[in-house]
## 1
Amino acid sequence: MHQIRKKVKHNFKTYAGYMGVLGFAPHILIIVLYFESLLNSYALSSLVFSIMFLSTTVSEIPIGIFSDIIGRRKTMILGGFFNLFSVVFYLSASYAPLNPIYLLCVGSFCHGIGRALFSGTDEAIVYESSKYLGNKDFKKYFSRGRSFNGFSTGTSALLSGFIAYYFSYRACYMASIVSYIVLICVTFTFYEVPLKHKGAYNNSFMTHVKEAVSYFKKSSKLRKLGILNIIDDSVTGSLYRYEIMFVSFFIPEYLLGVFRLVRQYVIALSFAFSRKIISFFGRTEIILIANITNGSIRFAAFALNNIFSPILLSMNGALGGACITSISEQLQEEFTDEQRATMKSLITIFISFVEAIIIFILGILADYFSLRVSMMLILLIKILPISIAVSLIRDDKKTK
């Protein structure tokens, strides 16, 4: 028993290492610039991204059930391989003799499958390890891993800017291939938490899904948190992918990495101090405050449309880490042990579907108007998660 507890406890270190290596992907900084250089169109670049989101949408439920029944460790290992495949296909597109969009689409499809395999599974490992050890402090280990990811992503972005400027976009993808090989090695070191339900679930696919959906119908809080998570992640993710293109209008390419470094370090610090921030503002209140603050900073940056815009955007996310931690913790508390990954997959399906629509619309609007105008219009959707956060605060006050 002591040896098992020791192995389970090691999952926290593995999770931190996994998040750190996952964040070190130099190609992520220049992915939009890379697609644009090959396709010469915002709309076509958005189409490639949309395939990633749609492949995530299609595979989320089966993979969530796979994770719940087969185990988290195997699911994570597969996720590592699909992420590696995606980068290989992305890189191959630059060597394609004909239209590169076909290889980009295959890479995007693999990217989406990799996202689905990691989605919810990594959080489930942390939550189940904490629960097995009798430790309820999910925030501590979750935020520590996300903090490692933020610092790693920032450092990766800094190097990426210089690699792209002094060498090429291809070199960034080659560096990411090495990083993802290391990531696969790290996923092998996870230990499967010995929970009673693992391997014992024999219901059909549809029965499993129906039971997961029924919990959303029963719990008003779970529905509201889920919808908030869907809209917030979809809008934030769409804008995040095109921010680097917007910033490139004001600063030279070799400084893009510095911009992303500052931005990711701000987010990482938010994760590092998330427990104190949440304790100060409140678990639900921080969601409202973070959405208002982040939305306002973004809108101001787009409205200014000058050299101060990158500075504002780099400071955006100061409360983002605490907000994400709070939402994740509250969702994990509402999920059942038997269907934890499946219930998370239901939410991620809608995130991927909505983000695919938003990012495609953003690309069309950018071609028709401008990138800045399209991002400002998309940002208005943030009003919805703000109103839901207000509703959740009211519900909390009623139950006290």
## 2
Amino acid sequence: MKALVFLSAFSFINEFLPSYREYWKVLITDKKSKPNKIELEQYYDEVFIIDDLQCKKEVARILAKVLITREIESLYTTFEPVVEVAGYLREKFKLRGMSYDEALRVRNKHLMKKTAVENGIATAKFSLIKNLKGLYAFIRETGYPIVIKPVSGCATGNTFKISSFGSFFNVDVIKMLWRHKEFLAEEFIDGCEYHCNSIIVNGKIVFSSVGKNLYNNMDTVLAGRPKGSIAFPACCDNERPIGDIKSFNERLVNCYGIRDGISHAEVFVDSRGVIYLGEIAARIGGVPIGDCIKNTSGVDINKAYIDAPIDKFQPDSINERPVFTGYLTFPSKAGELVTISDENDFSHLGGIKEIKFLNKPGDRLMRQKNTAVRTGYIIIEDESYDRLKEKLLDAFQSFRLTVK
């Protein structure tokens, strides 16, 4: 029996695993994630808990143990910090999928931008900054505003817009500069932020979906804007910029060597309609993007994450409906949760598909320091994009949260 090996556990795919009876499912995770082994063994045939999932040698030791008795059909991860580890392991053990160098290009933002420029793909001007002299030189060349971010960051964490010299006196900016020996500085692109999620089989995109963020990710973290997006139905493919983004995405997938699996591209579209690469990742977009895609297209991109690398994705699962589906994540505040909304706060909104609350009174919450921090989410559908956006923003205003 061949094995499917997963680096880190993802709750949104667990429900599918029991149906893969022809495979031996192996999970490798670490102590930092505080795994419940008994619960995980309901989904995986074998669970290994190690000290550090980002330690290549430690993970390689477990993989070598698995290979003694089983052939590995596919190695999976959708946890950003482990993408390059997966690439290293595929190369070391000659497994199908992205190599170490290919994985680095979708993980290391500097290499990602260099690859884009080398292949004629539009992206913001950028520079790898190693000292303040280099930073000031980039500002003199580009002018304000600029964006600074970690080379291997995720979820828009430690990402800041620098609009003037005074921006450097922000406490979080100072911490970011202090903690990172090198970081990326980029020209600020004034435009709307979209994402394109794709399923790729044998180097060909067999399905893609475009979504538009309610507000750009950086604004949701730094300015407290509502975090969410709206997935467009296929009937919008001939409209600009949706069709243009899908074409741009095809170039990205080919350029970065994503041959089997899922990709998540983030792009900016300026007032002239020019599309710029923000980032691309070889993983599923953040929850609950997949649920919105499924509601509009019928395609479960979470299941496709398992199926695409083993040639089991079924194109006949595509069942597009002429509806827009959007989500809004509920924000968080630092402190102990006292009260939080319930479903009744949103009963005036039509088209609700799901409401989920992740926290309860008594939980300790953290401040909104990146796009992954949330206390829940709501998913709504509507035949009108504008009406749906109004509903999502209404949900943001209707949400209640108090902490102490």
## 3
Amino acid sequence: MIAGTLTERLDALADVTAGIAHRAGALLKVAAQAEGAESEIAEAAQSGRRETARLCKEFWSRTAADGLVESTVDDTQLANTMDALLCADTMVHLRRVHGWSAKEYGRWLRKALRALVAPDRLR
């Protein structure tokens, strides 16, 4: 990710994720329902979960390497929390429970990602 500040990186990540929710949200809801009956769908969903976790670890590792957070920030905890926020399961759940559109989910996600790091810890 090339964005120069952590806020820009978090916002870009929220925008990409909201875009996926917009384009594939209905498909992800159906896939979640089918996981129990279809092993191939379950395997693909699990692969997606692992990839989201990997992406989150890489995000915070690069962010720390670029000096955008203080060295005392626990990047493993941030990665795990971000994983929970970004995963398709969370998006499907929030859209079902709250009836959110992809745009509403995107607004929530942007705020949630920014809240991960206290302003005084950002660089």
## 4
Amino acid sequence: MSKQAHAGIIALVGVYLLYLSYQLLEARMGGDMTLPTVVAVLAIGGFAIAGIAVIAYAVILYRGSKKEEEPKDRDSLK
């Protein structure tokens, strides 16, 4: 698997974590959640922070893989 594909899969995991956070928030606001408020807020915040961190990591991996593909010597392109 290429490093770019790996970064893409990791980014999808981050998006899924953000989606979980949104679903928990939506359930909490709709009154459908049986969790205590403190636990719900911690879970929502935890998933949101984790999702953002995973997406940031995927972006760093993707940019690193792009830099590795660039030739070291630009004169070799001629």
